[in-house]
Amino acid sequence: MGWGWTERIGIAALAIMLAIAGAWYAWPAPPRPVTPVPALRLDDGAAIRARLVAPQPGLTALAATITGRAASVPSGPGLRHEWPGFHALARFTGTAITLRFDDAVNRWRITLDGQAVELARPGRKDLRIDGLSPGVHDIRAEKISESPAPAIFGGFFLDKGAAALPPPPPPPRLIEFIGDSDTVGFGSTAQRRDCDAEEIFAATDTSRGFGPQAAAALGADYRLIARSGIGLLRNYGGADPAHTMERLYSLALPGDPDAPALPQRRADIVVIALGSNVFGSDLDPGEGWGDKAELGGDFGPALADFAATRLGDNPGAAMVLLAFGEYGPELVQAHRRASDLLSARGLANLLLVLDDPRRDACLWHLSARDHAAIAKRLVAALGQPQPG
């Protein structure tokens, strides 16, 4: 006796389910970030040579254009830095150059002649790069990790056979991005959410975050004032209430509040992306707000005051409020309230409420695809590059 239609459909459905299950288990898992991160890494096929050596005496310092919050080093040359995205540009003629570091916590990318050298936690060392072709060279050193503490960039140095040139002029506009781990680019190059601490270190690349991408597309430079877990009125989980962005923003070095800040270039555009940590975790009874609606009632005016102060610091700057809408209606409503309050003061601003990102990088953070999409939104909102 043959199978009836019911039995045949049941068998077919079971076969499909088994095939799907087999494909699920056979499908390769996303790769993990490669750890440990090598102390020194060059592009494949790089024509230049690079090595870490003990600090070398007798070299000549090379002037550089610096972007990012910094403080001087009391005991000698160099710059102390902690906020993300710190970068330096220089120009010279010669076949070799040396960069000096006192940094046991960060990753760096150094680019010149279309090639890249990456460092991880170099310590107190010089990076010696040679094998360059004779002629003019532009070099860029950029911190791409999040600093857990202040570190020192000692600068660029030349041998006797090289000649210093004035550093390249900075792009005509500067965008300041103020935010949290998403602005840092926390774990963004990972293809999975379950990352340990060393994998997060390997997968964080601030230079590929939405801020630097948008700035590059607009022909602008960027400065980042951002920190993982930080908020305006409260931090994630109510942690460390004495170190909210409201309290830390003015510091050159969050880890050394007494360090005097060096002068900074005025920003032409300010993008504030705060609020995710404020609304993204439950309130504790001792925090002072009964619920998120009450929290939102305080957050809107506080964000407006914070944004107005930033506009006072940067006269004539454009203001963008960036809201991650997936954190709930209280966050969006508070941002709309802040935007309205700024407008009522005669302070022009643009509110961008973002669609739900995939958040499939480390610990549910923005992925590379998410960062690219947000950068595209910012570029569309802020206009085309200016000639520079």
From TrEMBL:
CDD domains reported in the protein's UniProt record: Endoglucanase_E_like
Entries under Gene3D superfamilies matching the protein: Galactose-binding domain-like, SGNH hydrolase
Molecular function GO terms recorded: carboxylic ester hydrolase activity
InterPro entries attached to this UniProt entry: CE2_N, CtCE2-like_dom, PCW_deacetylase/CE, SGNH_hydro_sf
Residue ranges constituting the Carbohydrate esterase 2 N-terminal domain according to the UniProt record: 78-168
Highest taxon of the lineage: Bacteria
Pfam family, one: CE2_N
Name the record gives this protein: Lipase
Organism lineage: Bacteria, Pseudomonadati, Pseudomonadota, Alphaproteobacteria, Rhodobacterales
